[in-house]
Design goal:
29% of the residues lie in helices and 33% in strands. By secondary structure, it is α/β, with parallel strands linked by helices.
């Protein structure tokens, strides 16, 4: 079968920008909620823009909740981005208390305005890689800048899953996670220039192995 990346469509996300970037890199990808297409893909991207509770509702209505959990337990490479990064955690307090996929243990909380000054964080900020030997950051200088748009951030229960950190105001937060076959970023690599593009290239290279 030809190589393909599945971009999970649950009607909330920056689907087309990721698709266009992959097409620019001559990488075949499919925007889809079809279970067979997602299962047969070489790698999966879980994007996301919007509210946590609405996103979880969509995942359940499309029967994607169990599918995503199954894929990660089976070792399928998965790249979670922004809200997709949040959804993989245990729970979130965004607009109420909501249960997440619980694939990465931890909670999603709001920035404290007294500590950061302005919410949401919109714009470029640097990411400090804690594991410079990890495949996703190969060929990328540490403390490179990436594009963020968010009011909430995730706190992993297991600190060893933290791959990268960022400082916003007086708050140091987890901006990248790695757990087994899963990579997640709080920022948007597809909007982050050459270093963001390099992350997608690294992910695809990993999926080809």
């Amino acid at each position: 079968m030809p190589f393909n990346i599945a971009i999970i469509d649950y009607e909330m996300g920056n689907l087309k920008s990721i698709y266009k970037l992959l097409r620019h890199l001559n990488i075949d990808s499919t925007i889809t909620s079809d279970h067979n297409t997602i299962r047969n893909a070489d790698g999966v991207i879980l994007p996301g823009v919007g509210a946590f509770g609405d996103a979880m509702k969509q995942l359940r209505e499309k029967n994607l909740f169990t599918l995503i959990k199954d894929l990660t337990s089976e070792g399928k490479p998965l790249f979670g981005i922004c809200l997709g990064h949040h959804l993989l955690f245990s729970q979130s307090v965004e607009m109420g208390n909501h249960e997440g996929l619980d694939i990465i243990q931890g909670n999603v909380i709001s920035f404290d305005k007294n500590l950061v000054g302005k919410i949401p964080q919109i714009g470029w900020n640097n990411v400090f890689f804690l594991k410079e030997d990890h495949f996703i950051v190969q060929g990328i200088p540490n403390n490179s800048y990436y594009y963020f748009v968010h009011s909430f951030y995730a706190i992993p229960t297991v600190s060893s899953t933290i791959l990268g950190t960022t400082k916003y105001g007086e708050t140091d937060f987890c901006s990248m996670v790695s757990k087994d076959n899963i990579i997640t970023t709080q920022f948007h690599p597809e909007k982050s220039g050459k270093n963001g593009i390099k992350m997608y290239q690294n992910f695809v290279h990993y999926c080809r192995k």
